[in-house]
Amino acid sequence: xxxxxxxxxxxxxxxxxxxxxxxxxxxxxxxxxxxxxxxxxxxxxxxxxxxxxxxx
Length: 56
Description:
Elements (H helix, E strand, L loop, with lengths): L4 H25 L27
């Protein structure tokens, strides 16, 4: 079967609807409040120390 513009457009609408449904379902299933931030150690390998100039 040949590839037609109308067929591609129909598939695109289907994929868009599928994505919208997925995002809506994900939003509805999400917790009401965001999770509390944790006090994990931060990997500061790439962070500048306060008062130091950035290395160039």
